[in-house]
Amino acid sequence: LLGASYLNLRSYREANYYYQRGLEIARQSENDLLIASLLNSIAFFDQTQDNTEAAIEKFKQSLNIILIHGIKEHEQSLLDNLCLAYLELNDITTALEYCLDSLDIAQRLGNLSRLSRAFNNLGFVYFKSGNLEEAETKVTEAIAILEILFKNIADDPDSQMTLGDTLISYNLLQRILVAQQKHEEALAIAEQSRAKASVNLLTQRIGVEVNVSNIDAALSVDDIRKIARDNNAVLVEYSLILESYLNHGGVRGNTAEIYTWVIQPTGEINFHQTLLDAQGFDFQDIASKIQVS
What is the pTM of this model? Predict the structure, then answer.
């Protein structure tokens, strides 16, 4: 716990000390599951230090322990971690193998949250490989599953844990659509993402009970055109896009773009994208500060 706390504070020396100390104690006590958990955490720490090879080695050590104990949930999570770690090395073939194995286990487990994340990660691998059609299909499947969980947000506390995943999947789907020059479709996805962010703010910040059906209706592209036409106004829509992926329950991002749609009263829509220097961006910190419009 101390290692994770210091890592969140970006106190890397202290984080490393407590992780290593914890691993030493776990090995002395011969607690296999604790060893596997700490190896997994240290692997994430290695990734923050851009030491992906070391991270992969520790993920594999953790996986080997979990395989002995036959804990499928942990196995699936570690396969996801290995998928994304190999993707960092641009080893698409190996990343795809791990992601497909993760998806297979998630389907057998029947856990919707895990299944949506597996589809999202698989879509991210396909996106990086240039297979945009397959990427769109997989991320769309991830979002469809998350929508089921999202509808139950008021009754199921676990559903709230998927809100971040939902926004990440919408972020990724926008990138995939823009890469295919599907700019209007990307605008529609941006609007859906904003609707989910509104619910997120209400439930997590204000603490009110939300009737999702009342506020989950996003504007369609035709709706936006009608607003521009009826008000004889030029509308401008923005979306922040990060080079990001799921990692240790959060997101890492190292480059960013702003997508901009300019909607004329005539109904014409012009799209622009602007690359930002986003080294060190903390997606969740940024997301918490952006006001939903």
Answer: 0.83
